[in-house]
Amino acid sequence: MFRGYKIIAFCVPIAYDNICCNIISAMNDAAVDKNYRIFIYHTCSDLYWGTKNEDCDKAVFRLMDFSIIDTVVIFDEKFYDKSAVGDICEAAKKNNVPVILIGAKREGCISVFFDYESGFEEVVRHVVEYHGISDIFLIAGGKDSDTSNRRVDIFKKVYAENGYTFRDDMMGYGDYWWGPTLEIMNRLYEENRIPKAFVCINDSMAVTVCSFLQEKGYNVPDDVVITGFDGINEALFCIPPITTSCMKNEELANTIIGIADDIFSHNEVKDRYVIKYSLDIYESCGCKNPRKLINTGKLLKDTDERFKMYQEHDLVFHSISEKIMNCSSAEEIIENFERADFAETSIVINSSCFDESINPCDDVPGNNPFDEYILLLYQKAEKEDSPLNLPVQFEKKNVLPNIDYMLSKRNPLLFNTLGFMGVPYGYVCFSYYPCQDSYSKITQIISFINYAIGGYRNVKYAKYVAKNLEEIADHDFMTGLYNRSGFYKQIDRIKYADNVRYMIVAMVDLDGLKMINDTYGHDSGDFAINSISRALNFISLNNKICGRFGGDEFVLCASVVNCEAAEELIRYEITKYLNRINDLGDKPFKLSASIGTVSAPIETSDFDELMKIADDRMYAEKITRPNHRVRRSNE
């Protein structure tokens, strides 16, 4: 239990599909009065293509905390990727959480099946026996589909039992969708073989058949009878509505909640339960519809208004996305999300989203794409007390900061991964009342959030990379000191410093670098060069610039109050640092440097002129050292 409630985790793709949505609604109605709450773990696709984006979508199942879940329900039939189902079942098994599978069988799971065969047989018998029609064309699914082939066998059985002989030209394969179904209809029309009845093994093909016949001038059902199977909304909205067979959502919901009750009470539970499909009669078969007619004008008006609202939201979301992409903080993002005004929505993201050094396209390291401490970035809920001061960091195991209030509302909590370029970075939680009108908004909102936050992260990362490229371009790769270009960009910082009187320039040249390289190798040479760079950084002048202008030539520029003391300090501290390395190190050579310094009043100083003087003084010292480098003629 969690917060005093028994939790059912319902795993399903495409919850806004009318069948899924109706099941969720029925389950919630059956559950809430028995102290259950439903957590829906949802994907926006049916996971058919196996893409990186779908892998990101599947990350939502990593949100499932089995320490608070009492029962897992998986709508297996809706998943094309059965490995996702297997992963959920395996995780539940490890945590001793029972699993109810809808439409499938797995070892250790409780199965709830639909009796499609008896439902389809009832449709066929209604056409053949009740209406007495023998001139029938059967539109099947796919040739290799077991479901389709079983229904074909049922049709043949009923047809034969009524004394009729089935012929191969009485059937075509519509592959469950409108394209191949239209090909079948065009062929029959051209051959003048339109039968008295079409029996289709799903509603989608039945709707296509009805539309085609009406365009060709046929009257349904007076000229041709049509039946379907499944009970989708499109069949109900047809004119006339399509006679079909469908599941009673309340029966499925009550069965699942009954199983959960038995599990919770430690009662005996069967391995298999069966939900019947029942004949649902409408006018397309010629029967009188006992139900109230649908107001198609209102339906079209509502659909048109919903589409216009979708377009308006799209424009608003696009505008807000552009603003969010250019935000500089979480607080600015929250302000822009407030303009979108999502109802009953919580946006939760990893704190790492605000780390501009992380490439948003890089895969998440480790097994869990969600931080243990996560950030509530936005929440809009009908709450009477004071709203949360966003953003709020909280432990992921608590689900949401105000989870007690969310559970008290009695609506399911629907979770969906947030991700960009196939990389998850958070999740969104909707607490809508389950209906198609509210659930149909889910994908648009998720897409908006993904592109807004994903764009924000890309812009921040691009600026970070550009800044670091500039840093790299201005610095010496080996030592990290400024190179010549980067050094000159910093001169003004020295020249216009406050409360200083002099500019001092020091040229420092490593003694005997060629000998070190030739005798002890370039690794030793690199050690010597880096030792000089660290010696320069060691000098205790506050306002200084250190650079490497050549292989063994280093430059220091500083603004000081006392130039004589500063020149002495530079020489003393460089020598002290190198001597310390010589004393403590184990190198077979001793480090030393030739140093030339010069200073001038800062208001009249010219860096290039001072550098030339310092360079001359450095070489004057250098020629007194053994193994000194010969100065080139142009130096």
Features of the shown structure:
alpha/beta, Rossmann fold, Alpha-Beta Plaits, 20 helices, 20 strands, 43% helix
Can you offer a commentary on this structure?
There is one protein chain. Helices cover 43% and strands 19% of the residues. The chain is α/β, with parallel strands linked by helices. It has helices at 18-31, 52-58, 82-94, 116-130, 146-161, 178-190, 203-215, 233-237, 249-264, 296-325, 330-340, 403-408, 436-439, 442-474, 484-489, 491-495, 513-520, 522-538, 563-584, 607-622, and strands spanning 6-13, 36-43, 71-74, 99-102, 110-115, 136-140, 171-173, 197-200, 225-227, 244-247, 272-280, 345-350, 373-380, 392-395, 413-420, 423-430, 502-510, 544-548, 553-560, 593-601. It has a twelve-stranded mixed sheet with strand order 10-11-5-4-3-1-2-15-16-12-13-14, with helices on both faces. It contains 20 helices and 20 strands. α1 crosses α9 (249-264), α17 runs antiparallel to α18 (522-538) and α18 (522-538) runs antiparallel to α19 (563-584). The protein folds into three domains: 6-108 and 297-460, Rossmann fold; 116-248 and 279-294, Response regulator (Rossmann fold, 3-Layer(aba) Sandwich); 484-622, Reverse transcriptase/Diguanylate cyclase domain (Alpha-Beta Plaits, 2-Layer Sandwich), CATH 3.30.70.270.
